[in-house]
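Summary for the steering committee. One of the milestones for this cycle was to obtain a three-dimensional model of the protein with copper (II) ion bound, which we needed before selecting residues for the alanine scan. The sequence and ligand used are listed below.
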Amino acid sequence: MYTVGSTVSEAVDNVFLFIIIISVILLLVVTFLMIFFAVKYNRKKHPQSEPVKQKTWLEIVWTVIPVILVLAMFFYGYKGFLLIRQVPEDALKIKVTGRMWDWSFEYENGKRTDKLYVPVGQNVKLLMKSVDVIHSFYIPVFRIKEDLVPGKETYLWFKPQTVGPADIFCAEYCGQRHAFMMSQVMVMEKEEFEKWYQYDEKSQAEAQMEELKRIPAVKLMDDYGCLSCHSIDDSKGEHIPLKGIFGQKKIVIKDGKEIEIVVDEAYLRRALLEPGAEVVKGQINQMEPATDLSEKELQMIIDFLKEHK
Ligand SMILES: [Cu+2]
């Protein structure tokens, strides 16, 4: 009957449906009685008004029935509320940060994202914080919404039932770009989520290196210790990058003077054999001349650096 987004969707929808049905019935009864009495007691038939007599049973009926209805609505709603407030023990915990004007998510293994990724059929607990003003985390199809209050941690839980994306909104006006404070929850198959969860950028860099080390020239550079000072991948760190240097313009210090050079084969050869002759500006030469390398090996490395853009 419903497109179920999360385990609480149905409970919330049922409460709404229940309240609407009662309201509609009351509306019909009240409207009917209004019309009925207007006709029955119109002036032509009853020119003279009659005194109202107390009818205790009637008063009890019209007090007791609405009280029962209101209490029924309350208990039905309260049951749903308890369901939303009681987090299952095994829930996956994800930290949610709201700020003007975006959402960010942090997983237990330190992974950070700007979309919420979760596995289908898994209980998820969101621990929510705001760093500035009050926001409200809202996933309409999951029927869950909770405020994020600065200086306080609030929470929510849900269990997604179907794979696919769903919208996340901020439901509390929080300034100029409030309307754009949106994200998505991506519900994935369990295995797919595991893969995504385990995959991190660092191991990606490692995988890239593994791949590169299959190249003989790289293997050689690794064996000669070049890679303890140089990087040949995209990683940016303390290592001096060699990726894409061929053809670059550089300022080097030669005999105490700054000169501009273009990295070509001859320059690379000199960089390897007489590292102190031309030192890249801003660097201190710490490199031993690579005289242990045979001419063939030297050429192999130079060829590799030429190609490795
Ligand atoms: Cu907001």
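Key point for the committee: The first helix runs from residue 7 to 40.
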